[in-house]
């Protein structure tokens, strides 16, 4: 039986990345000996989290060794020069890879990974994918896979909090050292091909929520779920659009479920529009299935992409979906989605109105069928195909 290893910053924290990693690892135990190597405090271990106690997944804890102060200063100086002054070449990129991941750290990680005698190692996130690329040669014949959650533009745009344009060459240069890179969206894979000359494998995230009772469509309620942060989820747009919709429709209500720094501002918007009896913001709950089951239509007003697990969760409960016309949403929903122009309040208000007149049961049946494509066992089969493949990627001679 092949030995598979996931390396991750954490697995015992509450988060989408941790949950997805656990679900995929659990499913792959049907075919492989699976280990998760985590860079978190062993005291965080909680095997009841994400159901890990019910699967033969091994957990190994490690940490990055500290580097001597004078060495850190030297490495930091080179890192600064690479980002701001040096030409972007293969040599300078590789030197930067080593200066940002000093030898003491590399040797400690290589040691623990070699001890596991793994056949395939999967780095969970872009940061660890870069680290895995740096040490791949030291790991012998292991198959190395980088699993990237960030979108291409979010990761490499100017002033990005992640890498930004100054590290665009370096990022591509290092990822080329891996056997495979996995992304969530086909659109991003095409961007990688045009920028770097290789096409990452595309595997969507699985449905990680056990669905509750399917919606009956009898409750005239729209639902939106997500963290209440500025701009991203577009809840401000949704409230404005519902205000316009409510001026000609007195039957429907809107539930928003989530927590975050924008909650007070959003509640103020609702109060100013005299909609407190029509729109309610509910705190996030582990029993989110209850809200999906009681709603009739799901609304995603996001301004920019992330992997729309909530879209899949909504469809798994039989909810038709209204969504902004983001390419990422279209990859998930296809022709099923009812789209409005991203950021356009009037267009969203019209979609809300249109949705109240559709043949609900037909849409609901279609939603459940589409959601089945994202079942954990289906997505795990795609991972199995990748693990068993020869690792050859379509390449061009773009990065030297």
Automatic annotation (TrEMBL):
<protein>
    <submittedName>
        <fullName>Glycosyltransferase family 4 protein</fullName>
    </submittedName>
</protein>
<feature type="domain" description="Glycosyl transferase family 1">
    <location>
        <begin position="216"/>
        <end position="363"/>
    </location>
</feature>
<dbReference type="GO" id="GO:0016757">
    <property type="term" value="F:glycosyltransferase activity"/>
</dbReference>
<dbReference type="InterPro" id="IPR001296">
    <property type="entry name" value="Glyco_trans_1"/>
</dbReference>
<dbReference type="Pfam" id="PF00534">
    <property type="entry name" value="Glycos_transf_1"/>
</dbReference>
